[in-house]
Amino acid sequence: MAGYRSMGKSLIIRVAVLAACCIGSRVAAMDRVMIQREDMERELVGRVLVEGQDGSLLFQTLDGVMWVIEAQEVRGRRRDELPFRPLSKKEIGRRLVEELPRGFQIETTEHYVIAYNTSRAYARWCGNLWERLYRGFFNYWGTRRFPLHEPEFPLVALIFDDRAGFEAYAKEELGSAVGAVIGYYNFRSNRVVTFDLTGLAQQNRSRRHRFQSSEIRQLLAQPAAERNVATLVHEVTHQLAYNTGLQTRFAGNPFWVAEGLANFFETPDLRSSKGWRGIGKVNHYRLVQFRRNRAAQATGWLAGLVQDDAPFRNSKTAGQAYADAWAVNYYFLKKRVKDYVAYLTELSKLQPLEEPSPEQRLATFRRHFGDPQRVEQDVLKAMRRLR
Asked: Is 80 helix (H, G, I), strand (E, B) or coil?
């Protein structure tokens, strides 16, 4: 399950209240807001994305983090003449070292800032994996004529040396769900958070900085590691989607789209020495789930998936919802790509805090794809033919 969905539930409730009285605002000048939260005052520097009529704010700081600020928390605000300028990779790296527990180091690639306290070889392996995904992501959408833009902020990832460190950090964001995930994308902080999935750092901490990339490739090329590699790709796909114009953070993006696309990109290629290669291969893990869940069930599931995100939030129905989302996205991207790109283009124009109603979501779907029940039958036929 994508961790950013688990952590987002309480924030979504707060945002929904805020959105009911908001006027969109995005300016080039830099804002400074003094807030008081939990008996502490702090100044936030960045820009106001949305301002409520009651004085509540959706605020973005120079590192890309978004803050939902209630009116009573605001102690003062002023605007600089200076333009809004995101922090550089070096500046973000310095802040991460100050924020995180002792022992973290920084590895940078062309697009990523990776803070880690495991082996440098593992951090580099992840960085190389994500850079390949970055190039593949842009190439994939470019050939389908969806215009992406370069991320405004450096893309940040945190890699802990073991699950214990990961859970200690993530429990505040994920709550009780922390034990069920091995990585997640947090759409508030805009960070991917995970830990060393090889276990090498745990096995022999005294050798932490001497592991070779060949050892990591061998471990992560095993069939048992397939879902681990898939998770690394899945969560960074979310991060890319929200930073390149495919989707908008804090907007009402349907879960079947967000999760289905991440599932579409996640499929590992274990024959590759690099763990992942290519986009859009059959996700056999999701295909098996889909066939098992949909073999003898009544029609009408697609309309429900389009209108309501609840199945993704319920642990009893999430597996089926993710499989359904993959199947529908796979069908559209293989058989109706022009219609799907037009649909994604419309969704990409959603503004922060804009939340279409279930009726609006279904109407948008119908406008681009027609009757959901007919589409449902087409998806079922396509999934039966896959090998």
From this structure: strand
